[in-house]
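Holo prediction — flavin-adenine dinucleotide.
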Amino acid sequence: MKITEHIKRSENKTLFSIEVIPPQKGHNIQTLYDNIDPLMEFKPPFIDVTTSREEFVYIDKNGLLEKKITRMRPGTIGICASIMHKYNVDAVPHVLCGGFTKEETEYVLVDCHYLGIDNLVALRGDARKDQQVFVPTKGGNHYAVDLVKQIADMNAGKYLNSVADESCKTDFCIGVAGYPEKHLESPSLQTDLKRLKEKVDAGADYVVTQMFFDNKKYFEFVEKAREMGITVPIIPGIKPLAVKRHLNILPQIFRIDLPEELISEVEKCKTATEIKQVGIEWCIKQSKELKQAGVPVLHYYSMGKSDNIVKICREVF
Ligand code: FAD
């Protein structure tokens, strides 16, 4: 079922959902299930599965290092199929511009259609690790808005390089990313919001936000988006801080600010367990306030760990 339909049917009750990451190539899918299993008691109507960019690895060939390109966490669509089969919930693959030609993207979308996947999150993807800035793949989509257009075209029965008849129409519900603290490359929040509006105008049905630790940022973002004429659901994406290292890496990777109060609570902690507990309590507070404000879904970035999210959900749902 489409996410917009799940939201409609929830009758203003906040839903719970998670995002999971495929295991590294060669690892067992059971680890992923072990993290999803304890969260099923909170009845997520959908689970997002990320897609990773390709990267370079160095292979030792008789003492000489050979540079090879590979995808360390493949299998997004296969994992979606297995999640749908095992848990009987909707699975939402993240589809990227970076690393794929439009033709390859079309094949992925056709697979999704055959598998009965109703929702997709359309993303540009980050720059490859060996590149300073995002470089579009030759023959691929540049910005997320271009990918949204490709999906919207397929929803209208328009495939690449061919004319398909009406019966070939897909009917994907399209999600896109939004940034309450603006995307790192954007010159201002207002410019970024204009880009978001372009994605919605091109056919996006809902927005999922980058993580944030200060709800005020989300509320202001939604207000500005509404003023701009963005009317689709804006789902807050949140994550519990779990280790001291997060104080540095989360702002660095996601270009977000952490509230002073959270930083000082973490700095007072003497053990890793205390830090994890601070993160849980902060996230419970955030979740309760967002739920109280009537957000459609609370979407948790699980990053492959569920123990802290279970504790949060016991207090919130
Ligand atoms: P876009 O919407 O294309 O925007 C990228 C930048 O370009 C922004 O600064 C925007 O303002 C600007 N821009 C947009 N259109 C134009 C234009 N026409 N001209 C000039 N500038 C423009 N990454 C992954 O690799 N895998 C994932 O699974 C994944 N999942 C994510 C899920 C969520 C909910 C979020 C918030 C992010 C996710 N990301 C993922 C990260 C995402 O790929 C990066 O943040 C990426 O840098 C931007 O993606 P986007 O879709 O927002 O890009």
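READOUT: The CA atoms of residues 179 and 210 lie 5 Å apart.
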